[in-house]
Amino acid sequence: MSNTTQLLRFITAGSVDDGKSTLIGRLLHDSKSIFEDQLSAISKTSAKRGMAAVDLSLLTDGLQAEREQGITIDVAYRYFATPKRKFIIGDTPGHEQYTRNMVTAASTANLVIILVDVRKGVLVQTRRHTYLASLVGIPHIVLAVNKMDMVDYSEARYSEICAEYLKFAAQLGLTDITCIPLSALMGDMLVDRGDNLDWYQGTTLMNLLENIVIDYDVNTTDFRYPVQWVCRPQTDEYHDFRGFMGRIEAGEIAVGDEITVLPSGRTSKVKEIVTYDGKLQHAYAPQSVTLTLEDEIDISRGDMFVRSSANAPKVEKEFEAMLCWLSETPLDKNRKYLVKHTTRTAKCLFSSIGYRVDVNTLEQHATDRLNMNDIARVAIKVQQPLMFDSYATDRATGSFIVIDEATNNTVAAGMIA
Q1: Is this prediction's pTM over 0.85?
Q2: Residue 213 CB: number of other CB atoms within 10 A?
Q3: pLDDT tens digits for 221-236?
């Protein structure tokens, strides 16, 4: 398989027992992406439990606690590939108390599959997961109406659920939504169409995953290059080499282009674009490259290169953001934390908490305290200026994490408004 095969990251979300783990297991099984020893192991486990058929959900529910309770607690990642595309799947928890796990997995996803049990319809959890998907900016949403075999593959019931969900999603401004009826247990409309859904003329889930366009999920307009490392090899061959290593988070760059270094505002031109395989004339997001400049400028980790003639990010010490609190220890407004934004880390204070969002009802409540899994609008002051865009413009330069100085634990994840 070619190294240039496109990678799609997607997650599954839904209420408990909607069939997320079974769906992933069926995708892996029917696409021939599991090994014989894996299939043998879960077959033996299924037989010990007295099951007539293989329980494919065991492919993802890896923790012993999950298997005992029959639920997904942590995020289980699985990797597979087809001739068309590579995939990373995140099976996220359905319980409200594991909101932080879903937010973490969703932050890098191109697509989310939100499962609905056709017998239960759109639930509070369905709305919560859709809100979280919109919050972290997942571009593509698939509503998978599962367990169609339990209602005799009723088209009327499927249409009713889709209409209700699309009405709710419109309130969040979501437009790229595909509805698919399926049965993860029986395999209908996952990899193969099956024989039970003749009235549905749309795509199968696997066909959608293989062909959905994700080229524009990354900001291709505004060049953003946070400097990760200043490369000064101490060898005779590269004695005078001074390169700036990092990953292009948005846009593109070419040799000869003029760039501006933030926050200093100094300008120069790109002299070389160097990679492990040699030199390039052009580079694009999300490539990791080393850039050399025509001028000697004082540049260090945490600085950012942008195009001199294009839209510049904001360079400020204060901003507002939506914050998901991840720590068991509540937010303390009277102490300092660290903010890590792209490659820059700075001390910060939370100057105010605007409101907390009830993720089940989407209502906003005044509060001065954040506990684990809370999502709130906050105002932050940082010691050093950050170069940022809004999260809606660029997920990479519009996001950050908050670190506890004392424990070095990540305590929150934020999206800049």
Answers
A1: no
A2: 9
A3: 899 999 999 998 876 6
